[in-house]
């Protein structure tokens, strides 16, 4: 958004603030308290000027950790004292003069609702309520130390100073330059968002860049994201979001309620929220989700148009936006990636896949779970991004400090709106799905079992396989204080069953069955958690019958890190754990899948009969040629490989699946010279098109807090096997360690192309 457009929006905001004075006049006046002559006359105490000490190097912003905000207004955190200076018309006389502050929030501030605070002089500050005391007197200048309530609603407050001398009163006129933003305070023990660890506060509140993880559990890639919560205009955009969500100002002191509103307003599904979700692959009416490198351009675009949703986004974009908004408000938040994330549509708390008598997938039952429908049966598995935040959860007994889960995609219709969470991770881990909010859906995303069903001749379905580790793998977030990945799966679920090589004893001989891994028992806590949750689902009897033992094992594994244009190698293993021969009818299928996990159709299917001798293991290699999958590529370049089998002798039926993701070349960024504040420095960007096809209408998008406002540069076409090189001048605005992020945007790009450079600015 251009500077002129932002200034127009800011003037409009100031105009709205002035309109509030028509509702409740705040004017310079004298009020006579009796009908007799004034006892003070012209000696009434008046305020000549107000100094909020709001410079970036002054005490208030430094002590409140708000000095990174690109704002002239004073920004402080609730429950913590700040200083102001008042220049008076004469020296203050504590015997005759009374002084107080009024803090007005919203269009109709009311004392009983906490949106009007009356701040009085006291001898000692009360840490639990609004209060102030004089800390320095210098002739006609008073220095006041003001403490706000740790439960105060957050927002932009109007400051009014009031003096009373005997029978006469003075009130300052509202000046927008003296408005004070009050935010949540994770440094304050009395605030419900308090976080004890300083390094975590720096990461989850103050860090304005981060990493979002992608790919699959065996190959985890990382994308850098510019949260940009301190950028000019973002704070107003975030509060505008609450206004659009019609959240009462009186309710803005409760972080849990606020998180739920943000969850609903980040997506545009039913309330014209910020971002339009799109998983269709057609982005002709907007921006490709993979092109975004940060939240700033999206939020400012939404704010500058008065709330017109921005197109388009997917999971990681929703997560990045949510983290920006909540960090801006002062709620410790991190973006999290869950690999293999289930989406429940029938609240069964199991993930059900259906096949017919011939082991063909029944697509009418295994339908697209991204569509909002209460009657669909199947869920799909995907890589899901969401956010964790850190308010106190009143539903749980001590110890109460726990991360809360919040998801902002439009997957779930919850209590009349499309939102998800917040829900306690402790509740999710223990299967307490009856607690608020949306715990069944969230539990299933990370810790349900995958149940395979086959239709019998009479039309009923029989369960033939249960995979107990189907979802919730390598749950990842950026580590505190570094760019490393932190695995936080243990916060969501107890340890699942281990995967080890299987051996069977035959006298002194141990026979290995399977080239890779066989599932052993889950931990007792994990099974209790799953079965507890399922009791509250639509299939409470699912685990009341023990599964029959099967003696043929199977596994399939696709290779990792496959470059677009390369062939894909599949390794298949079949093992017979019995002392008898086994005959297996084996089907091998290759399918293209969307980012959401939805199967776009099988494009290759092979069938063969395999005979296994007693205790025999057979390993096979299958190749998927580039020519076979080239015409079936979908966005993100994901495939699902499935082996299905039926054992002739025992009637055992099995199914195993694995995924593969294709990758493109990376975007390289080089800083040519020493970066200094307010001085130009060159940044060079390079990308090699490893495909034979031409990539048309390529745009380069760059941004970085303190380095570069979001900017789009048209590059044009990049021919097959050609290297693109572009140089751009940037002018850093802040010193210290910074990060420059760039992405390539083209409707012909199958996978994300992004790069970053760490820059130290003098």
Automatic annotation (TrEMBL):
GO terms for molecular function: metal ion binding; protein-glutamine gamma-glutamyltransferase activity. It comes from the Eukaryota. The keyword Disulfide bond does not apply. Ca(2+) binds at residues 447, 449, 496, 526. It is an enzyme of class 2 (transferase). Binds 1 Ca(2+) ion per subunit. Residues 307-396 form the Transglutaminase-like domain. One of its GO terms (cellular component) is membrane. Its EC number is 2.3.2.13. Keywords: Acyltransferase, Calcium, Keratinization, Lipoprotein, Metal-binding, Palmitate, Phosphoprotein, Transferase. It is found in: Membrane. It is a lipid-anchor. GO terms for biological process: keratinization. Its cofactor is Ca(2+). PANTHER family: PROTEIN-GLUTAMINE GAMMA-GLUTAMYLTRANSFERASE, PROTEIN-GLUTAMINE GAMMA-GLUTAMYLTRANSFERASE K. Belongs to the transglutaminase superfamily. Transglutaminase family. Interacts with PLAAT4. Catalyzes the cross-linking of proteins and the conjugation of polyamines to proteins. Responsible for cross-linking epidermal proteins during formation of the stratum corneum. Involved in cell proliferation. This is Protein-glutamine gamma-glutamyltransferase K. It comes from Latimeria chalumnae. The lineage of its organism: Eukaryota, Metazoa, Chordata, Craniata, Vertebrata. The gene is LOC102355065.
């Amino acid at each position: 958004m251009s500077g002129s457009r932002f200034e127009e929006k800011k003037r409009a905001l100031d105009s709205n603030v002035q309109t509030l004075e028509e509702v409740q006049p705040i004017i310079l006046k004298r009020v006579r308290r009796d009908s007799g002559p004034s006892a003070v006359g012209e000696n009434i105490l008046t305020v000549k000027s107000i100094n909020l000490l709001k410079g970036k190097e002054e005490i208030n912003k430094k002590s409140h950790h708000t000095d990174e905000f690109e704002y002239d207004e004073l920004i402080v955190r609730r429950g913590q004292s700040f200083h102001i200076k008042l220049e008076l018309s004469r020296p203050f006389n504590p015997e005759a003069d009374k002084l107080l502050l009024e803090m007005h929030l919203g269009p109709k501030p009311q004392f009983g609702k906490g949106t009007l605070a009356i701040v009085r002089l006291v001898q000692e500050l009360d840490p639990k309520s609004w209060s102030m005391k004089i800390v320095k007197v210098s002739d006609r200048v008073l220095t006041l130390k003001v403490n706000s309530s740790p439960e105060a609603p957050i927002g932009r407050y109007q400051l009014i100073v009031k003096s009373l001398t005997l029978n006469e009163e003075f009130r300052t006129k509202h000046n927008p330059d003296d408005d004070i933003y009050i935010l949540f305070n994770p440094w304050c023990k009395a605030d419900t968002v308090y976080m004890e660890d300083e390094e975590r506060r720096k990461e989850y509140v103050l860090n304005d860049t981060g990493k979002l993880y992608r790919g699959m559990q065996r190959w985890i890639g990382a994308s850098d994201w510019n949260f940009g919560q301190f950028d000019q205009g973002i704070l107003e955009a975030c509060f505008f979001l609450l206004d659009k969500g019609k959240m009462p100002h009186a309710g803005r002191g409760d972080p849990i309620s606020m998180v739920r509103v943000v969850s609903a307003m980040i997506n545009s599904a039913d309330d014209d929220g910020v971002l339009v979700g799109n998983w269709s692959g057609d982005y002709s009416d907007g921006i490709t989700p993979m092109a975004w490198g940060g939240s700033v351009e999206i939020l400012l675009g939404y704010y500058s148009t008065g709330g017109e949703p921005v197109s388009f986004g997917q999971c990681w974009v929703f997560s990045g936006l949510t983290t920006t908004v909540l960090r801006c408000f002062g709620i410790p938040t991190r973006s999290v990636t869950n690999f293999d994330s289930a989406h429940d549509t029938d609240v069964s708390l199991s993930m059900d896949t259906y096949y017919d008598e011939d082991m063909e997938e029944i697509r009418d039952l295994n339908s697209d779970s991204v569509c909002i429908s209460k009657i669909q049966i199947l869920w799909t598995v995907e890589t899901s991004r969401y956010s964790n935040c850190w308010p106190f959860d009143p539903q749980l007994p001590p110890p109460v400090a726990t991360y809360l889960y919040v998801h902002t995609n439009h997957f779930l219709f919850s209590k009349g709106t499309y939102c998800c969470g917040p829900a306690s991770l402790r509740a999710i881990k223990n299967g307490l799905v009856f607690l608020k909010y949306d715990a069944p859906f969230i539990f299933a995303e990370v810790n349900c079992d995958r149940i395979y069903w086959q239709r019998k001749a009479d039309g009923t379905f029989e369960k033939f396989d249960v995979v107990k580790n189907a979802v919730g793998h390598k749950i990842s977030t950026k580590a505190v204080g570094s760019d490393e990945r932190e695995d936080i799966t243990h916060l969501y679920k107890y340890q699942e069953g281990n995967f080890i090589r299987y051996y069977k004893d035959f006298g002194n001989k141990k026979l290995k069955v399977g080239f890779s891994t066989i599932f052993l028992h889950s931990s007792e806590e994990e099974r209790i958690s799953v079965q507890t949750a399922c009791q509250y689902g639509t299939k409470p009897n699912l685990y009341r019958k023990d599964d029959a033992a099967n003696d043929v094992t199977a596994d399939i594994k696709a290779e990792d890190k496959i470059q677009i244009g390369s062939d894909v190698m599949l390794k298949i293993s079949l093992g017979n754990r019995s002392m008898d021969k086994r005959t297996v009818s084996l089907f091998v299928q290759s399918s293209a899948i969307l980012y959401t996990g939805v199967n776009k159709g099988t494009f290759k299917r092979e069938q063969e009969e395999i005979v296994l001798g007693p205790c025999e293991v057979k390993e096979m290699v299958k190749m998927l040629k580039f020519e076979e999958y080239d015409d079936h590529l979908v966005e993100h370049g994901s495939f699902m490989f499935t082996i299905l089998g039926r054992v002739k002798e025992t009637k055992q039926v099995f199914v195993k699946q694995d995924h593969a993701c294709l990758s493109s070349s990376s975007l390289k960024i080089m800083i040519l010279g020493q970066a200094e504040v307010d001085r130009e420095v060159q940044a060079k960007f390079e990308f090699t098109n490893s495909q034979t096809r031409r990539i048309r209408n390529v745009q380069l998008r760059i941004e970085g807090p303190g380095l570069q406002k979001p900017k789009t540069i048209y590059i044009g076409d990049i021919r097959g096997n050609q290297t693109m090189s572009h140089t751009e001048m940037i002018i850093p605005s802040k010193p210290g360690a910074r990060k420059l992020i760039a992405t390539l945007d083209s409707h012909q790009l199958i996978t994300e192309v992004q790069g970053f450079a760490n820059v130290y600015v003098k």
